[in-house]
Amino acid sequence: MGQRVLVIQPDMKGGDKSSLTTPVLQLAEACALVETLPRWKVVQKMVVPVQNHQLSHVFSPGRLAQLTEEITNNKHISMVFLSTNKLAPSQVSSLQDLWNIPIIDRYTVVLQIFKEHAKTKEAKLQVALAEIPMLRYCIPDIHEGTHDKTFGGSNYLGGDTHYQHRWHLLGVSNDLGTHLHVHPKLMTSTGGK
Fold first, then answer.
1. Is 47:11 a contact under the CB 8 Å cutoff?
2. CA 25/CA 177 separation, integer angstroms
3. CA neighbours within 13 Å on the CB side: how many for 136?
4. Per-residue b or e along 126-154, where b marks 16 or more CB atoms closer than 10 Å to that residue's CB
5. pLDDT tens-digit profile of 5-47?
């Protein structure tokens, strides 16, 4: 069946006024990214004002309550793409706990696009290398072991729990160490087993 995605474009209040783009153009770009993936479909899209994207849930309490009602009452949504460069692992976890569906950011979507189109060993290796910064970023959340929500629907998200997904990604870095002949102690410092 694939993913049925709600795309949310944050509109940062008080943001860069000299920007050459607008939230509406950013939303259109985000939707185009999602639509390039096979079996992924944008089922709803919106621009949402945000005061401070550093909040644990990204949105103000009132806006979060509105979004929660809308998302939990719409069974056509299987995933939320929050079109921001990178969400903190704690933000992803708290939103997933609240909405009970996977939450992804632009970094994750772009990696998925690259992964989908990688056919040669070299291209697949490049994708795996591109995942390493995400792995390092997610490591503190893994060690906390606080979340265990199930993902599903695509090869990237694989039907694993949140915790299993993160460990799977760390396993990818272990495989890279084997292929690149990296000393095991160096792999340990990047989150490998």
1. yes
2. 40
3. 10
4. ebbeebeebbeebbebbeeeebebbbebb
5. 999 999 987 666 667 889 999 999 999 999 999 999 999 999 9
